[in-house]
Amino acid sequence: MHITYDYEIELKKKHINDLFKSFHVGEIELSRMYNPYNYRNKSQMTYKLSKSKNIVCGLYEEFSHNIITADNNILQSKKANEVISALNKVLTKNKISVYDEKTRTGLLRHVFIRYGFNTKELMLVLVTNGEMFPGRNNVLKDLNKLDLGITTIVQNFNTRDTSIVLGDKEKVLYGPGFIYETVGDYKFKISPRSFFQVNTFGMKILYEKAIELAKLSKNDIVIDAYCGVGTISIFLSKYVKQVYGVEINRGAIKDAIINQKINDRNNIEFIADDATNFITKLAKTREKIDVVVMDPPREGSTKAFINAIKYLNVKKVIYISCNPDTLKRDLYQFFENDYNLECMHAVDMFPRTLHLETIAVLKLDDELEYLENLVKENKKNNTKKYNENKLRYIPKADIEMMREDRYEAEGFKNNKKKKY
Ligand code: SAH
Prior knowledge:
Shape: elongated
Distance between the termini: 34 Å
Strand content: 15-25%
Helix content: 25-40%
Strand order of the largest sheet: 1-16-17-15-14-11-12-13
Bound molecules: S-adenosyl-L-homocysteine
CATH class of the largest domain: Alpha Beta
């Protein structure tokens, strides 16, 4: 990107405001990052042999399998850049064989690093085509001599014909096999394969903003859906009565339980399950849930998930999204279910890229309750005996009529019409 960060912020803000313009939610603010460079705590690169037969690594070019090498990646931590270039020399010196995607032969495929900006702990993962790693001990010895501040080294086996970096199996070669990182008042355990927000500083800004907008109360029972290693659950647990964190990745849930213990939080329960499955089960038993915080992957959530939220009569939803397009699609589904959009806020979690995070706060339209109370009042003033149970069965057409009457009476001042 050849534009200034100020201009990038302006463009992103315009994009997000244009995208959600028809929702009439007011100006969407965008929180910027203090440092738009070298913020990524996770780095991954793919190996190849240079023309001069040196081992080099780089990133795949977009939509292709060409590897573009760069000595200094401007997004990842400076520490990762330092380790990767030192490692390239060590690998070249020890003549480690490099994987060739076309012939599917050779050994070393990728390097993967996770760095704790606050703890200074660093995890190095070497991804190899199978378990065999001739020259491994020499590589470890040379790295040790260089004293780069690597706190753990893991070998990950990936024999699949795919551009997904990490395989399912791994072996710890040095140290504990994971790192710790602190964010705000909390400490988190990060293993090679568990999800962790890539921008450590941005993550704190994002969570604090989401919590501020959520206006939580001490009695709230909250679901943190798509909870990863439990970071949001832990951040919000001190403001509420109980949190249920649900996540599909079992490894992440294991880490979440450990994170809960490290941080001494005792009002969180973590569940390894598909978020839609979990919430639909709750809907069947009509559990009382006050707030849902959801942070799904780029594909967004599902209709069934959103419908179950409505069925549970959840009053407030905080939707954190890394993909504004699927957020928009899912918001329509919320509107279908009588939720109103209260406010939105964006956080520039990924400076110098096209991505950002958006928070949307939704509230269940309390109009139906209001109308029911109105009917109750009228009936009370009426001398006729009246069956309370029937209240829940106001025909939809009648509700629409009452809605119209109310809009007319209030001169559209409190316009709760769906905002799209
Ligand atoms: N809230 C966390 C993680 C967000 S990323 C954080 O801020 O760190 C999205 C997470 O959703 C990932 O951890 C992914 O494993 C999980 N996920 C993906 N599909 C899911 C599903 N169907 N049910 C539950 N979790 C899912």
